[in-house]
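Subject: complex prediction, re-run

Hi both,

The earlier run crashed halfway through, so I resubmitted it with identical inputs.
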Amino acid sequence: MRSLAGRDVFFDSEGFLVDPSQWSEEMAEQLARETGISFLEETHWRVIRFLREYYLQNGRAPLHRELKKGIGMTLMEIEALFPGGIKMGARLLAGLPNPKTCGM
Amino acid sequence: MREKLAEIIYLDNAATTFPKPREVLERMIDVYAAKGVSPGRGGYDCAQEADELVSGVRQRLCQFFGGDDPDRVIFASNATDALNLVIQGTVKPGGHVVSSQLEHNSVLRPLQHLRESGLIDYDLIPFDGQGFIDPDDVSRAIRSQTQLVVLTHASNVLGTIQPIEAIGAVCREKGVPLILDTAQSAGVLPIDISKWGVSAMAFTGHKSLLGPTGIGGLVLSRSLEVQSTRFGGTGIDSQELIHTQTYPHRLEAGTLNILGIIGLMAGLDYLSAQGMESILLRERALAQRLWEGLAELKRVKLYGTDRLDRRLGVVLANIEGMIPADVGAILDGDFGIATRVGLHCAPLVHQRLGTGRAGGVRFSVGPFNTENEIDQAVEAIKKIAEFRRAG
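This time it finished cleanly. Structure:
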Protein backbone atom coordinates (compact mmCIF):
# COMPACT_ATOMS: atom_id res chain seq x y z
CA MET A 1 0.00 0.00 0.00
CA ARG A 2 1.17 3.51 -0.69
CA SER A 3 -0.24 6.99 -0.52
CA LEU A 4 -0.98 8.40 -3.97
CA ALA A 5 -2.91 11.48 -5.05
CA GLY A 6 -4.19 11.98 -1.54
CA ARG A 7 -5.39 8.46 -0.76
CA ASP A 8 -4.06 5.11 0.39
CA VAL A 9 -3.96 2.69 -2.50
CA PHE A 10 -2.98 -0.98 -2.87
CA PHE A 11 -0.70 -2.00 -5.74
CA ASP A 12 0.49 -5.46 -6.73
CA SER A 13 4.14 -6.42 -7.04
CA GLU A 14 4.31 -5.08 -10.62
CA GLY A 15 2.76 -1.76 -9.74
CA PHE A 16 -0.81 -2.39 -10.95
CA LEU A 17 -3.76 -1.09 -8.97
CA VAL A 18 -5.38 -3.95 -7.08
CA ASP A 19 -8.79 -2.24 -7.14
CA PRO A 20 -9.44 -0.40 -10.43
CA SER A 21 -12.23 1.60 -8.80
CA GLN A 22 -9.63 3.46 -6.72
CA TRP A 23 -8.22 5.06 -9.88
CA SER A 24 -8.36 8.81 -10.46
CA GLU A 25 -6.97 11.15 -13.10
CA GLU A 26 -4.65 12.70 -10.51
CA MET A 27 -3.34 9.24 -9.75
CA ALA A 28 -2.65 8.60 -13.45
CA GLU A 29 -0.75 11.91 -13.68
CA GLN A 30 1.40 11.06 -10.69
CA LEU A 31 2.09 7.52 -11.95
CA ALA A 32 2.93 8.97 -15.36
CA ARG A 33 5.54 11.29 -13.84
CA GLU A 34 7.09 8.28 -12.11
CA THR A 35 7.41 6.49 -15.46
CA GLY A 36 9.05 9.50 -17.10
CA ILE A 37 6.09 11.31 -18.70
CA SER A 38 6.21 14.81 -17.27
CA PHE A 39 2.86 15.80 -18.76
CA LEU A 40 0.05 13.59 -20.05
CA GLU A 41 -0.97 14.98 -23.41
CA GLU A 42 -4.32 14.58 -25.13
CA THR A 43 -3.12 11.52 -27.06
CA HIS A 44 -2.17 9.81 -23.80
CA TRP A 45 -5.55 10.64 -22.33
CA ARG A 46 -7.31 9.29 -25.39
CA VAL A 47 -5.66 5.91 -24.83
CA ILE A 48 -6.18 5.94 -21.06
CA ARG A 49 -9.83 6.96 -21.30
CA PHE A 50 -10.58 4.39 -23.98
CA LEU A 51 -9.01 1.62 -21.89
CA ARG A 52 -10.92 2.67 -18.77
CA GLU A 53 -14.25 3.12 -20.47
CA TYR A 54 -13.93 -0.18 -22.28
CA TYR A 55 -12.95 -1.97 -19.09
CA LEU A 56 -15.78 -0.49 -17.05
CA GLN A 57 -18.31 -1.33 -19.75
CA ASN A 58 -17.11 -4.86 -20.60
CA GLY A 59 -15.34 -6.07 -17.48
CA ARG A 60 -12.16 -6.81 -19.40
CA ALA A 61 -9.47 -5.01 -21.35
CA PRO A 62 -10.14 -4.53 -25.07
CA LEU A 63 -8.84 -7.07 -27.56
CA HIS A 64 -5.83 -5.90 -29.52
CA ARG A 65 -7.89 -5.18 -32.61
CA GLU A 66 -10.51 -3.35 -30.51
CA LEU A 67 -7.82 -1.16 -28.96
CA LYS A 68 -6.37 -0.35 -32.36
CA LYS A 69 -9.75 0.50 -33.85
CA GLY A 70 -10.97 2.35 -30.77
CA ILE A 71 -7.96 4.65 -30.58
CA GLY A 72 -7.32 4.92 -34.30
CA MET A 73 -3.61 4.24 -33.85
CA THR A 74 -1.47 1.18 -34.46
CA LEU A 75 -0.37 -0.78 -31.43
CA MET A 76 3.21 0.10 -32.36
CA GLU A 77 2.30 3.77 -32.00
CA ILE A 78 0.49 3.21 -28.71
CA GLU A 79 3.43 1.20 -27.39
CA ALA A 80 5.86 3.95 -28.32
CA LEU A 81 3.67 6.64 -26.74
CA PHE A 82 4.24 5.35 -23.21
CA PRO A 83 7.74 4.72 -21.82
CA GLY A 84 6.43 1.54 -20.17
CA GLY A 85 4.77 0.41 -23.40
CA ILE A 86 1.22 -0.94 -23.59
CA LYS A 87 1.10 -3.22 -20.59
CA MET A 88 3.37 -1.46 -18.11
CA GLY A 89 2.52 1.98 -19.45
CA ALA A 90 -0.93 2.56 -20.90
CA ARG A 91 -2.69 -0.24 -19.07
CA LEU A 92 -1.02 0.50 -15.75
CA LEU A 93 -1.74 4.23 -15.94
CA ALA A 94 -5.36 3.50 -16.81
CA GLY A 95 -5.65 1.55 -13.57
CA LEU A 96 -6.65 -1.73 -15.21
CA PRO A 97 -5.84 -4.88 -13.24
CA ASN A 98 -2.70 -6.85 -13.98
CA PRO A 99 -3.60 -9.51 -16.57
CA LYS A 100 -3.37 -12.96 -15.03
CA THR A 101 -2.02 -14.88 -18.02
CA CYS A 102 1.66 -15.59 -17.48
CA GLY A 103 3.86 -12.84 -18.81
CA MET A 104 1.07 -10.71 -20.22
CA MET B 1 -22.79 -23.63 -41.51
CA ARG B 2 -19.01 -23.62 -41.39
CA GLU B 3 -17.28 -20.97 -39.31
CA LYS B 4 -14.75 -18.96 -41.21
CA LEU B 5 -11.16 -19.92 -40.47
CA ALA B 6 -9.45 -17.28 -38.33
CA GLU B 7 -7.48 -14.90 -40.53
CA ILE B 8 -4.26 -15.01 -38.62
CA ILE B 9 -0.77 -16.28 -39.13
CA TYR B 10 -0.78 -18.88 -36.43
CA LEU B 11 2.65 -19.41 -34.87
CA ASP B 12 1.56 -20.83 -31.52
CA ASN B 13 1.59 -24.50 -32.45
CA ALA B 14 3.57 -25.47 -29.35
CA ALA B 15 0.49 -24.49 -27.33
CA THR B 16 -1.85 -26.41 -29.60
CA THR B 17 -1.68 -27.12 -33.29
CA PHE B 18 -4.12 -25.04 -35.28
CA PRO B 19 -5.94 -25.52 -37.48
CA LYS B 20 -6.51 -29.23 -37.16
CA PRO B 21 -6.59 -31.21 -40.39
CA ARG B 22 -10.09 -31.14 -41.81
CA GLU B 23 -9.82 -34.92 -42.31
CA VAL B 24 -9.36 -35.40 -38.55
CA LEU B 25 -12.34 -33.25 -37.62
CA GLU B 26 -14.64 -34.86 -40.20
CA ARG B 27 -13.60 -38.36 -39.16
CA MET B 28 -14.29 -37.49 -35.52
CA ILE B 29 -17.80 -36.40 -36.35
CA ASP B 30 -18.50 -39.40 -38.58
CA VAL B 31 -17.21 -42.05 -36.20
CA TYR B 32 -18.66 -40.41 -33.11
CA ALA B 33 -22.03 -40.13 -34.83
CA ALA B 34 -21.93 -43.84 -35.61
CA LYS B 35 -20.24 -45.29 -32.50
CA GLY B 36 -20.21 -42.64 -29.80
CA VAL B 37 -21.62 -44.79 -27.02
CA SER B 38 -20.01 -45.65 -23.70
CA PRO B 39 -17.23 -48.11 -24.56
CA GLY B 40 -17.22 -51.38 -22.68
CA ARG B 41 -20.41 -50.59 -20.81
CA GLY B 42 -23.70 -52.20 -21.78
CA GLY B 43 -24.31 -55.50 -23.46
CA TYR B 44 -25.30 -54.23 -26.88
CA ASP B 45 -23.24 -54.58 -30.02
CA CYS B 46 -22.56 -50.89 -30.47
CA ALA B 47 -20.96 -50.67 -26.98
CA GLN B 48 -18.81 -53.65 -27.89
CA GLU B 49 -17.77 -51.98 -31.13
CA ALA B 50 -16.91 -48.78 -29.28
CA ASP B 51 -14.80 -50.81 -26.86
CA GLU B 52 -13.00 -52.45 -29.78
CA LEU B 53 -12.33 -49.04 -31.25
CA VAL B 54 -10.76 -47.88 -27.95
CA SER B 55 -8.68 -51.05 -27.71
CA GLY B 56 -7.55 -50.56 -31.29
CA VAL B 57 -6.33 -47.04 -30.50
CA ARG B 58 -4.47 -48.35 -27.44
CA GLN B 59 -2.82 -50.91 -29.70
CA ARG B 60 -1.82 -48.29 -32.24
CA LEU B 61 -0.43 -45.89 -29.65
CA CYS B 62 1.52 -48.70 -28.00
CA GLN B 63 3.10 -49.56 -31.32
CA PHE B 64 3.64 -45.91 -32.28
CA PHE B 65 5.57 -45.16 -29.08
CA GLY B 66 7.40 -48.49 -28.70
CA GLY B 67 5.44 -49.71 -25.68
CA ASP B 68 5.37 -53.36 -24.62
CA ASP B 69 1.71 -53.80 -23.63
CA PRO B 70 -1.37 -52.12 -25.19
CA ASP B 71 -3.24 -52.55 -21.90
CA ARG B 72 -0.71 -50.18 -20.39
CA VAL B 73 -1.80 -47.35 -22.64
CA ILE B 74 -3.83 -45.20 -20.27
CA PHE B 75 -6.12 -42.41 -21.42
CA ALA B 76 -6.10 -39.11 -19.56
CA SER B 77 -7.14 -35.55 -20.32
CA ASN B 78 -3.76 -34.25 -21.46
CA ALA B 79 -0.05 -34.52 -20.67
CA THR B 80 -0.39 -32.60 -17.38
CA ASP B 81 -3.11 -34.98 -16.22
CA ALA B 82 -1.04 -37.98 -17.27
CA LEU B 83 2.06 -36.66 -15.48
CA ASN B 84 0.04 -36.15 -12.31
CA LEU B 85 -1.20 -39.74 -12.59
CA VAL B 86 2.20 -41.29 -12.98
CA ILE B 87 4.10 -39.10 -10.54
CA GLN B 88 1.56 -39.30 -7.74
CA GLY B 89 0.94 -42.97 -8.37
CA THR B 90 4.59 -43.90 -8.18
CA VAL B 91 6.38 -41.93 -5.45
CA LYS B 92 6.36 -43.12 -1.87
CA PRO B 93 6.89 -41.18 1.37
CA GLY B 94 10.52 -40.32 1.98
CA GLY B 95 11.35 -40.62 -1.70
CA HIS B 96 13.39 -38.38 -3.94
CA VAL B 97 12.84 -37.33 -7.55
CA VAL B 98 15.28 -35.96 -10.08
CA SER B 99 13.98 -33.53 -12.64
CA SER B 100 15.32 -30.47 -14.45
CA GLN B 101 15.08 -26.71 -14.76
CA LEU B 102 13.78 -27.19 -18.30
CA GLU B 103 10.47 -28.54 -17.08
CA HIS B 104 6.99 -27.19 -17.59
CA ASN B 105 4.80 -26.56 -14.56
CA SER B 106 3.08 -29.85 -15.44
CA VAL B 107 6.08 -31.50 -13.76
CA LEU B 108 7.27 -28.76 -11.41
CA ARG B 109 3.95 -28.18 -9.68
CA PRO B 110 3.13 -31.83 -8.88
CA LEU B 111 6.65 -32.20 -7.50
CA GLN B 112 6.37 -29.02 -5.46
CA HIS B 113 2.98 -30.13 -4.15
CA LEU B 114 4.44 -33.45 -3.02
CA ARG B 115 7.37 -31.69 -1.40
CA GLU B 116 5.13 -29.28 0.48
CA SER B 117 2.99 -32.20 1.58
CA GLY B 118 6.11 -33.63 3.21
CA LEU B 119 6.09 -36.75 1.04
CA ILE B 120 9.17 -36.34 -1.13
CA ASP B 121 12.10 -34.13 -1.93
CA TYR B 122 13.42 -33.36 -5.39
CA ASP B 123 16.43 -31.89 -7.17
CA LEU B 124 16.39 -30.04 -10.47
CA ILE B 125 19.42 -30.38 -12.69
CA PRO B 126 20.38 -27.38 -14.83
CA PHE B 127 20.58 -27.11 -18.61
CA ASP B 128 23.51 -25.68 -20.50
CA GLY B 129 23.67 -22.43 -22.46
CA GLN B 130 22.41 -24.19 -25.56
CA GLY B 131 19.37 -25.65 -23.77
CA PHE B 132 20.46 -29.23 -23.12
CA ILE B 133 20.58 -31.48 -20.07
CA ASP B 134 23.77 -33.44 -19.46
CA PRO B 135 23.20 -37.17 -18.77
CA ASP B 136 26.12 -37.07 -16.34
CA ASP B 137 24.23 -34.50 -14.27
CA VAL B 138 21.31 -36.91 -14.10
CA SER B 139 23.65 -39.65 -12.95
CA ARG B 140 25.17 -37.43 -10.26
CA ALA B 141 21.77 -36.30 -8.97
CA ILE B 142 20.44 -39.83 -8.44
CA ARG B 143 20.80 -41.00 -4.86
CA SER B 144 19.74 -44.08 -2.92
CA GLN B 145 16.27 -42.63 -2.15
CA THR B 146 15.63 -41.58 -5.76
CA GLN B 147 12.38 -43.15 -6.95
CA LEU B 148 11.91 -41.40 -10.28
CA VAL B 149 13.64 -39.30 -12.90
CA VAL B 150 11.11 -37.07 -14.68
CA LEU B 151 12.27 -35.13 -17.74
CA THR B 152 10.94 -33.39 -20.78
CA HIS B 153 11.76 -34.86 -24.18
CA ALA B 154 11.80 -31.42 -25.79
CA SER B 155 11.63 -28.02 -24.11
CA ASN B 156 8.40 -26.13 -24.73
CA VAL B 157 10.34 -22.85 -24.49
CA LEU B 158 13.47 -23.56 -26.52
CA GLY B 159 12.40 -26.60 -28.50
CA THR B 160 15.68 -28.32 -27.64
CA ILE B 161 15.55 -32.12 -27.90
CA GLN B 162 17.10 -33.81 -24.91
CA PRO B 163 19.50 -36.79 -25.10
CA ILE B 164 16.91 -39.22 -23.76
CA GLU B 165 18.52 -42.39 -25.02
CA ALA B 166 21.70 -41.59 -23.06
CA ILE B 167 19.69 -40.55 -19.99
CA GLY B 168 17.64 -43.74 -20.30
CA ALA B 169 20.86 -45.75 -20.19
CA VAL B 170 21.90 -43.92 -17.01
CA CYS B 171 18.51 -44.60 -15.38
CA ARG B 172 18.58 -48.25 -16.41
CA GLU B 173 22.06 -48.65 -14.93
CA LYS B 174 20.97 -47.01 -11.68
CA GLY B 175 17.66 -48.89 -11.57
CA VAL B 176 15.54 -45.75 -11.41
CA PRO B 177 12.43 -45.40 -13.62
CA LEU B 178 12.58 -42.62 -16.21
CA ILE B 179 9.32 -40.75 -16.88
CA LEU B 180 9.24 -38.76 -20.11
CA ASP B 181 7.10 -35.71 -20.81
CA THR B 182 6.48 -35.84 -24.55
CA ALA B 183 3.95 -33.00 -24.74
CA GLN B 184 6.00 -31.26 -27.42
CA SER B 185 7.48 -34.24 -29.20
CA ALA B 186 4.77 -36.91 -29.53
CA GLY B 187 3.63 -36.95 -33.13
CA VAL B 188 6.61 -35.12 -34.58
CA LEU B 189 9.66 -37.00 -33.25
CA PRO B 190 10.10 -40.77 -33.35
CA ILE B 191 9.78 -42.21 -29.83
CA ASP B 192 10.71 -45.73 -28.76
CA ILE B 193 10.33 -46.09 -25.02
CA SER B 194 11.37 -49.75 -24.94
CA LYS B 195 14.61 -49.06 -26.80
CA TRP B 196 15.37 -45.92 -24.80
CA GLY B 197 14.78 -47.41 -21.36
CA VAL B 198 11.85 -45.13 -20.60
CA SER B 199 9.44 -46.53 -18.00
CA ALA B 200 6.52 -44.23 -18.81
CA MET B 201 5.75 -41.44 -21.21
CA ALA B 202 3.03 -38.83 -20.92
CA PHE B 203 1.58 -37.49 -24.16
CA THR B 204 -1.10 -35.06 -25.23
CA GLY B 205 -3.37 -35.43 -28.24
CA HIS B 206 -3.85 -31.82 -29.29
CA LYS B 207 -0.34 -30.84 -30.31
CA SER B 208 1.66 -32.75 -32.92
CA LEU B 209 -0.68 -35.74 -32.78
CA LEU B 210 -3.18 -33.34 -34.38
CA GLY B 211 -6.15 -34.47 -32.33
CA PRO B 212 -8.50 -32.39 -30.20
CA THR B 213 -7.91 -30.92 -26.75
CA GLY B 214 -9.04 -32.99 -23.78
CA ILE B 215 -7.30 -36.24 -24.69
CA GLY B 216 -3.85 -37.50 -23.80
CA GLY B 217 -2.40 -40.31 -21.80
CA LEU B 218 0.37 -42.50 -20.58
CA VAL B 219 2.27 -45.36 -22.13
CA LEU B 220 3.70 -47.48 -19.34
CA SER B 221 6.30 -50.19 -19.60
CA ARG B 222 5.54 -53.51 -17.91
CA SER B 223 8.41 -52.81 -15.50
CA LEU B 224 6.60 -49.91 -13.81
CA GLU B 225 3.74 -50.28 -11.34
CA VAL B 226 1.60 -47.20 -10.82
CA GLN B 227 -0.91 -47.00 -7.99
CA SER B 228 -4.46 -45.74 -8.54
CA THR B 229 -4.94 -42.16 -7.40
CA ARG B 230 -8.53 -41.79 -8.55
CA PHE B 231 -11.30 -44.25 -8.28
CA GLY B 232 -14.71 -45.01 -9.73
CA GLY B 233 -16.53 -46.90 -12.41
CA THR B 234 -14.54 -48.95 -14.90
CA GLY B 235 -17.31 -51.01 -16.45
CA ILE B 236 -15.93 -54.25 -14.98
CA ASP B 237 -15.83 -55.91 -11.54
CA SER B 238 -18.74 -53.72 -10.52
CA GLN B 239 -19.54 -55.89 -7.49
CA GLU B 240 -16.21 -54.87 -5.91
CA LEU B 241 -15.89 -51.65 -3.93
CA ILE B 242 -12.15 -51.72 -4.50
CA HIS B 243 -11.14 -50.03 -7.76
CA THR B 244 -10.16 -52.42 -10.56
CA GLN B 245 -6.44 -53.14 -10.35
CA THR B 246 -5.79 -54.52 -13.81
CA TYR B 247 -4.45 -52.17 -16.48
CA PRO B 248 -5.65 -49.97 -18.09
CA HIS B 249 -8.65 -49.67 -15.73
CA ARG B 250 -6.38 -49.32 -12.72
CA LEU B 251 -5.58 -45.77 -13.79
CA GLU B 252 -8.80 -44.83 -15.54
CA ALA B 253 -12.08 -43.99 -13.79
CA GLY B 254 -15.35 -42.99 -15.37
CA THR B 255 -16.50 -42.90 -18.98
CA LEU B 256 -13.66 -42.41 -21.42
CA ASN B 257 -13.40 -39.44 -23.77
CA ILE B 258 -14.35 -41.47 -26.81
CA LEU B 259 -14.59 -38.43 -29.08
CA GLY B 260 -11.02 -37.53 -28.11
CA ILE B 261 -9.89 -41.13 -28.65
CA ILE B 262 -11.43 -41.10 -32.13
CA GLY B 263 -9.54 -37.86 -32.70
CA LEU B 264 -6.29 -39.55 -31.70
CA MET B 265 -7.02 -42.36 -34.13
CA ALA B 266 -7.73 -39.88 -36.92
CA GLY B 267 -4.59 -37.92 -36.03
CA LEU B 268 -2.48 -41.09 -36.24
CA ASP B 269 -4.05 -41.86 -39.62
CA TYR B 270 -3.23 -38.37 -40.83
CA LEU B 271 0.40 -38.65 -39.66
CA SER B 272 0.70 -42.01 -41.29
CA ALA B 273 -0.63 -40.69 -44.60
CA GLN B 274 1.54 -37.56 -44.58
CA GLY B 275 4.62 -39.15 -43.05
CA MET B 276 5.79 -37.89 -39.65
CA GLU B 277 9.34 -37.41 -40.89
CA SER B 278 8.26 -35.22 -43.76
CA ILE B 279 6.25 -33.05 -41.35
CA LEU B 280 9.29 -32.78 -39.05
CA LEU B 281 11.61 -31.85 -41.91
CA ARG B 282 9.18 -29.24 -43.15
CA GLU B 283 8.73 -27.70 -39.71
CA ARG B 284 12.48 -27.66 -39.18
CA ALA B 285 13.03 -25.94 -42.52
CA LEU B 286 10.51 -23.27 -41.56
CA ALA B 287 12.08 -22.85 -38.12
CA GLN B 288 15.49 -22.49 -39.74
CA ARG B 289 14.15 -19.82 -42.09
CA LEU B 290 12.66 -18.00 -39.11
CA TRP B 291 15.82 -18.31 -37.02
CA GLU B 292 18.07 -17.09 -39.82
CA GLY B 293 15.73 -14.20 -40.61
CA LEU B 294 15.52 -13.06 -37.02
CA ALA B 295 19.25 -13.56 -36.39
CA GLU B 296 20.04 -10.90 -38.98
CA LEU B 297 17.96 -8.24 -37.23
CA LYS B 298 19.50 -5.66 -34.96
CA ARG B 299 18.23 -5.55 -31.36
CA VAL B 300 16.72 -9.03 -31.66
CA LYS B 301 18.00 -11.71 -29.31
CA LEU B 302 17.49 -15.44 -29.85
CA TYR B 303 17.88 -18.20 -27.29
CA GLY B 304 19.17 -21.77 -27.28
CA THR B 305 21.12 -23.72 -29.82
CA ASP B 306 21.33 -22.73 -33.47
CA ARG B 307 21.62 -26.42 -34.33
CA LEU B 308 18.21 -26.75 -35.92
CA ASP B 309 18.61 -30.53 -36.15
CA ARG B 310 18.62 -30.63 -32.35
CA ARG B 311 15.40 -28.71 -31.85
CA LEU B 312 11.75 -28.66 -32.80
CA GLY B 313 10.13 -25.82 -34.71
CA VAL B 314 10.23 -23.49 -31.73
CA VAL B 315 12.10 -20.15 -31.68
CA LEU B 316 12.28 -17.89 -28.63
CA ALA B 317 13.10 -14.22 -29.24
CA ASN B 318 13.12 -10.83 -27.58
CA ILE B 319 13.49 -7.28 -28.88
CA GLU B 320 15.89 -5.23 -26.82
CA GLY B 321 14.08 -2.61 -24.72
CA MET B 322 10.59 -3.99 -25.26
CA ILE B 323 8.55 -6.22 -23.02
CA PRO B 324 7.49 -9.46 -24.72
CA ALA B 325 3.81 -8.94 -23.87
CA ASP B 326 3.82 -5.75 -25.93
CA VAL B 327 5.67 -7.36 -28.83
CA GLY B 328 3.07 -10.14 -28.83
CA ALA B 329 0.24 -7.59 -28.71
CA ILE B 330 1.70 -5.67 -31.66
CA LEU B 331 2.30 -8.85 -33.66
CA ASP B 332 -1.34 -9.75 -33.11
CA GLY B 333 -3.01 -6.36 -33.42
CA ASP B 334 -0.92 -4.80 -36.19
CA PHE B 335 0.24 -7.83 -38.15
CA GLY B 336 -2.28 -10.61 -37.41
CA ILE B 337 0.41 -12.95 -36.12
CA ALA B 338 -0.38 -15.17 -33.13
CA THR B 339 2.54 -16.06 -30.85
CA ARG B 340 2.88 -16.99 -27.19
CA VAL B 341 4.56 -14.47 -24.92
CA GLY B 342 5.61 -14.63 -21.31
CA LEU B 343 6.91 -17.54 -19.30
CA HIS B 344 5.29 -20.41 -21.19
CA CYS B 345 4.46 -22.13 -17.88
CA ALA B 346 8.17 -22.88 -17.50
CA PRO B 347 9.40 -20.19 -15.08
CA LEU B 348 12.74 -21.80 -14.29
CA VAL B 349 13.75 -21.84 -17.96
CA HIS B 350 13.30 -18.08 -18.12
CA GLN B 351 14.99 -17.62 -14.78
CA ARG B 352 18.05 -19.41 -16.12
CA LEU B 353 17.95 -17.64 -19.49
CA GLY B 354 17.87 -14.30 -17.70
CA THR B 355 14.51 -13.42 -19.22
CA GLY B 356 13.11 -13.16 -15.72
CA ARG B 357 9.51 -12.27 -15.10
CA ALA B 358 8.66 -10.95 -18.57
CA GLY B 359 9.82 -14.03 -20.50
CA GLY B 360 10.04 -13.95 -24.27
CA VAL B 361 8.14 -14.19 -27.54
CA ARG B 362 7.80 -17.79 -28.70
CA PHE B 363 7.20 -18.60 -32.33
CA SER B 364 6.25 -22.21 -32.94
CA VAL B 365 5.60 -23.60 -36.38
CA GLY B 366 3.14 -26.31 -37.31
CA PRO B 367 2.31 -28.51 -40.26
CA PHE B 368 0.26 -25.85 -42.03
CA ASN B 369 2.61 -22.87 -41.88
CA THR B 370 4.18 -21.60 -45.08
CA GLU B 371 7.44 -19.91 -46.04
CA ASN B 372 5.48 -16.77 -46.83
CA GLU B 373 4.07 -16.68 -43.30
CA ILE B 374 7.55 -17.06 -41.82
CA ASP B 375 8.81 -14.21 -44.01
CA GLN B 376 5.92 -12.05 -42.83
CA ALA B 377 6.78 -12.80 -39.20
CA VAL B 378 10.42 -11.82 -39.75
CA GLU B 379 9.35 -8.64 -41.53
CA ALA B 380 6.95 -7.78 -38.69
CA ILE B 381 9.67 -8.14 -36.06
CA LYS B 382 11.98 -6.05 -38.22
CA LYS B 383 9.38 -3.27 -38.44
CA ILE B 384 8.64 -3.38 -34.71
CA ALA B 385 12.32 -3.21 -33.76
CA GLU B 386 12.97 -0.37 -36.22
CA PHE B 387 9.87 1.60 -35.22
CA ARG B 388 10.81 1.43 -31.54
CA ARG B 389 14.36 2.58 -32.30
CA ALA B 390 13.09 5.47 -34.46
CA GLY B 391 10.64 6.45 -31.72
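The beta strands of chain A are 2-4, 7-9.

- K.
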